[in-house]
Amino acid sequence: MKNVLSLFFLLLTFLSFSQTKVLSWNLENFGKSKSTVELNYIAKKVSTYDIIAIQEVVAGYGGAQTVAKFVQILNEKGFKWDYSISDPTTGSSYKTERYAFIWKTSKVKLKNNPWLEKKFNLEIDREPYFSTFEINKKTITLVNFHAITKNKQPETEIKFFKFLPAEYPNLNLVFLGDFNCPEKHTVFFPLKKMGYDSVLKNQKTTLKLKCKNDICLASEFDNIFYKTSSLKITNSGIIKFYEDFDSLQEARKISDHIPIWFEFQLN
User: Fold this and answer.
1) Dist CA 52 CA 204 (whole Å)
2) pLDDT tens-digit profile of 172-227?
3) How many CB atoms lie within 10 A of CB 28?
4) Sequence-ordered list of residues with C-beta below 8 angstroms from that of 163, at least 6 positions apart, any chain
5) What is the pTM of this model?
6) Which DSSP string corresponds to 245-261?
7) Rounded distance, CA 122 to CA 120, Å?
């Protein structure tokens, strides 16, 4: 019986180690406006994940410094974390930003230097940020993205995503972030025909200004698109962080988006 229990716990440990948890969050204006109290709150919410993808890091002074401060807070919570921050995005017609990846060094290993998309940087205003990670001797490339706002028609730039798998044929691409566009939109059909699927379905991810009849979420903007033949999704969801606050006005000081996440095994 003792041997059976030991084997059971060993199997549980192996299964938890073989699965990786990724969280994506548009942390509105992530920079010097975020207080230490707010950074500690965010760290508490994300510390159980293995890789964190952040959109909307401030491009000017304060953005990169806040990411570094945030990682320092995470490092005080029991795990060693590392991070990479993109250069400012190059599009001129809309607000330039940075992206960030943060990861537990005990769970994943960074492969090569992350990069901003070069070929379609003129067509995509805030060009996506790629980072390849090694997990149990297999690799995955996360493509961190923040689309232009809905009134600027994000589909006009998302349509170029269908060319990226051919542009990087040796990479296992997973697109994640704030698309400002629901996954049901026809612009995602070409990716779906290639074998990609969205992790979230019919899931709103942005905060209203005020809850109405207990409905606090507004739009289906954030999502994760993965190739079904490359990954096995074991769990996924959202974090309703706004429930920790007395009002949406208070919650929106953290962000106007909620975090989304998925847990997976590489095939």
Assistant:
1) 20
2) 999 999 999 999 999 999 999 999 999 999 999 999 999 999 999 999 999 999 99
3) 18
4) 119, 120
5) 0.92
6) SSSHHHHTTT-SB--EE
7) 5
